[in-house]
């Protein structure tokens, strides 16, 4: 579930415990589902471009004043120390603009197709996707929360790569079904989506074993992951993408959906990453994970205002070192 919608419509975050005593949880779930349907219907009625502009304008006006924007400022001071305060403020405003647009574009996912102009997307690296589709077999498509990441699966599916993914299911099953229905309509096929957790992990392994394609967003902090450098600092990173790629000896294809206008995107696909072959599994996972972080860092430097700087990506000791003025790690 996309993070902003989870904050608005997930009962884990929106309902105080005492409210559960007033009405049955099923009633709250139904009410939240109706509220979400209303919001999506209103946004859909505006059209993709106007909905995107509205979402961006609202988020850009409110977001920079929220406490979480201080997290983004600290992250930027750590990762891109060459930026002055004004540049950081511009990037943070852009982050909120992109986030608001991403939410507002959600009901338009099924209508965002490959087009020459206007709402939709274009592509760089089409030959890479077509080659993988022709080759067949398991593959892993890695990306990050850049631009509108929700447009990635339906866009990639256009080239015959039907990409399943692992997602965090909301506590509200009504909301979950609404969002899953939108995703499936956008992809145009019944693609399995795996809930985050042990069961989802087992299902994703079985999916790759059967020759499926798995999409993974690799840019979020994972406390029980492995340490891998990002912007020159250690960052706890999920090793699953690297571990699965090595387990199944399958291609790892990087790509992201860069925003180039209101509800307008460019899908940028890069050649598969080379798989380490030293035979030392732990070291090979670390090497491949670092390579993914390097690709991710490059993307972020190209469009820093389109990445989610709002989450605490680096460990507390690293951030404390920033405050104390400790020299950047090698």
Automatic annotation (TrEMBL):
<dbReference type="Pfam" id="PF03279">
    <property type="entry name" value="Lip_A_acyltrans"/>
</dbReference>
<protein>
    <submittedName>
        <fullName>Lipid A biosynthesis lauroyl acyltransferase</fullName>
        <ecNumber>2.3.1.-</ecNumber>
    </submittedName>
</protein>
<keyword id="KW-1003">Cell membrane</keyword>
<dbReference type="InterPro" id="IPR004960">
    <property type="entry name" value="LipA_acyltrans"/>
</dbReference>
<keyword id="KW-0472">Membrane</keyword>
<dbReference type="GO" id="GO:0016746">
    <property type="term" value="F:acyltransferase activity"/>
</dbReference>
<keyword id="KW-0012">Acyltransferase</keyword>
<keyword id="KW-0808">Transferase</keyword>
<dbReference type="GO" id="GO:0005886">
    <property type="term" value="C:plasma membrane"/>
</dbReference>
<keyword id="KW-0997">Cell inner membrane</keyword>
<dbReference type="GO" id="GO:0009247">
    <property type="term" value="P:glycolipid biosynthetic process"/>
</dbReference>
